[in-house]
Amino acid sequence: MAVMGMTACVNDLNTEPIDKNSTTAFNQDAVFSKCYATLALTGQKGPDGDCDIDDLDEGTSSFYRMMWELNEFCSDEGWWIWNDVGLADIRVMNWNGDNALVKGLYYRLNIDIKLCNHFLEHASTDELGNIQRAEVRFIRALNYWYMLDMFKVAPLSTKESTELPEFVEREALYTWLVGELNELTEILPEQRLSVYRVDKYAAWLLLARTYLNAEVYTGKAAWAEAENAAKEAQKGNYQLLTEETISKDGVRYSAYQKLFMGDNHNNGAQNEALLLIYQDGVYCQCWGGSRFVINAVRDAGMVPAGSADSWKCFRSSPEMVYMFADPEAADTIKADEYTMPSLLKDDRAILCSQSDSNLTQVWKLSGPMSAEFYDCWSVVKFTGVYSTAAHPAKNVASDANWPDTDIPLLRLAEAYMIEAEALFRQNKTSDALDIINNVIRKRANAAPLTTLDEKTLCDEWSREFYTEGRRRTDLIRFNRFAGPKADANQYTWEGRGGKKTGEPYVSLPEKWNWYPIPNDDKASNANYKKTQGDGY
Fold first, then answer.
1. How far apart are CA 227 and CA 417, in angstroms?
2. pLDDT of residue 302
3. Which residue from 87, 90, 493, 89 is spatially nearest to 317, judged by alpha carbons?
4. Distances 381 to 121, 341, 439, 520 between C-alpha atoms, Å
């Protein structure tokens, strides 16, 4: 771990015993489970106390939270109120190689990759072992996809080794990842062996996502390849959830809402998730999982959400609200998350502009660059409430504070959106509109779009996937983030580059389209070459 510039306490990676008179056996099933658990947990014990990564607040060190923060905090979707270490620079796109959040994600990805390599080095090659090996290769590929997307150069290591890893350019990592995922589509199971494991269609979806962003990574688009992979991802035993639920006391839970509820492992939502990250209020407690996205957006006066805790630290931006609401009328809309979708005529508009029915606290639309939680609407699509229980007093939960809501990291809806965008990029706009209107928007009970351009398509990605940890990636692909192409577009939002609403558009260097390799890793690894580096 010292090779990576940070000490880490990953006990499963110890391949030699400290006491030479003792032996350390490789427990294949335990390490296999740990490879999946890296997506959900931060250590060996529970929410805290026996971490994977030292020198970092364990609560912030989870795979999902690290990835989510670095994709959402710098985007047009919301504003994090708290001033966590390193956070202020992420919000205004002014980070560097010493930023705590950047380092946290980088080391999390590297440690998870090392664990996967450890498993692959020692796992058996019998029938069961080969199935497990294929799944672990997918988890490794997933971590490398985030390395590809978030960092311009990255250490590539596919074997357990004490040697310093070689840094590769983005295009080389892209080429390796495409080859790895194509092979995994052939060797992963046709059907997953449990709801929390992956099959070949998850590989097809991750491959489609990789192709979709090929122009960003390599300078050369791969729209036809993205279209084909997205279609392949749709051929599995998955289906878009379209059935709503009416609770015993008459509360309607839309099909879209059920994707993000406490029983999304068995309410039909599991059939849309190609990769579902396990969460459980008793057996899988983590400060960086669904508790993070549920508690962060709520105050104590809002309707119950399956957790007694409320952090009041993240809210939407006006730009996020205007994806659904008319800017001229938005200030007059006062509703909680159960009435907002019908008011805005889109089931995906799970937003709150009031804290309770008595209007004792009303949100404003004054913009994100402040320390006030109520300066914009709350984004409350994730909840611990069960769709199979009455709302909200009779909510079923296994723990009063820790939600059971699983995280749908890969959804079938993404395959449809990738296919639609790939068609649009190939000048097949009517075909793209057909998918968006008759699949994506129809499920949300939203009116069909009559035209489609880049802005509308980028906005539709946000409407379907807001606060799911992908917005930065989409903004970059649509040339709405940083660099010369973004300057030509001149899309902006309050907080971008530290600017407030009404201030002139600010040009940002292209390097803000990726994050830097941590400075301590550059210093400790002689394979890092400044001439082929990240530009920081």
1. 10
2. 83
3. 493
4. 41, 11, 20, 38
Regions of the chain where pLDDT drops below 50:
1-23, 358-359
Which of 185, 178, 211, 210 is closest to 200 using CA atoms?
185
pLDDT confidence of residue 286: 84
- CB-based contacts of 228, cutoff 8 Å, min separation 6: none
Instruction: Determine the Cα–Cα distance for residues 226 and 235; give it in Å rounded to an integer.
Output: 15
CA 238 from chain centre, in angstroms, equals 20
User: What would the 3-class secondary structure string for 364-381 be?
Assistant: CCCCCCCCCHHHCCEECC
Q: What sign does the CA torsion over 269, 275, 277, 278 have?
A: positive
Q: Nearest 5°: CA angle at 35, between 30 and 38?
A: 115
Is 44 exposed, middle or buried, given 0-12, 13-18 or 19+ CB atoms closer than 10 A?
middle
CA–CA separation, 522 and 444 (whole Å) = 47
Contact 204, 183 (CB under 8 A): no
Give the DSSP per-residue string, 291-331: HHHHHTT--TTSPP-S-S-----EEE-HHHHTTTS-TTTGG
Q: CA 181 to CA 196: how far, in whole Å?
A: 19
On whether the CB atoms of residues 116 and 99 are closer than 8 A, the answer is no
- Mean pLDDT in the chain? 89
Angle at 414 between CA 413 and CA 419, to 5 degrees: 100
Helices marked H in 151-222: 170-187, 200-212, 214-218
The packing angle between helices 170-187 and 127-150, to 10°, is 150
- With vertex at residue 433, the alpha carbon angle to CA 428 and CA 439, rounded to the nearest 5 degrees, is 130
How far, in Å, CA of 401 to CA of 396, rounded? 12
pLDDT digits (tens, 9 = 90+) for 388-400: 876 555 567 788 8
| pLDDT for residue 356 | 57
> Measuring CA to CA, which residue among 144, 129, 157, 145 is closest to residue 32?
129
Pull the structure tokens for residue 396.
């079923």
Euclidean distance between CA atoms 105 and 145, whole angstroms: 13
DSSP label at residue 466: T
The residues, ordered by sequence, that sit 6+ positions from 184 with a Cβ below 8 Å of its Cβ are 134, 137, 138, 141, 200, 203
Which pairs from 155-159 meet CB under 8 Å and 24+ separation? 155/110, 155/525, 155/527, 157/113, 157/114, 157/117, 158/117, 159/117, 159/120, 159/121
Whether the model pTM is above 0.85: yes
Reply yes or no: is the peptide bond before residue 392 cis, omega within 30 of 0: yes
pLDDT digit string (tens) for 50-100?
667 766 666 667 899 999 999 999 999 999 999 888 999 999 999 999 999
Predicted pLDDT of residue 284: 86
Task: Tell me the CA end-to-end span of the chain in Å, nearest whole number.
Answer: 24
Q: Is 86 left (phi over 0), alpha (psi -120 to 50) or beta?
A: left
Cα–Cα distance, 453 to 455 (Å, whole number) = 6
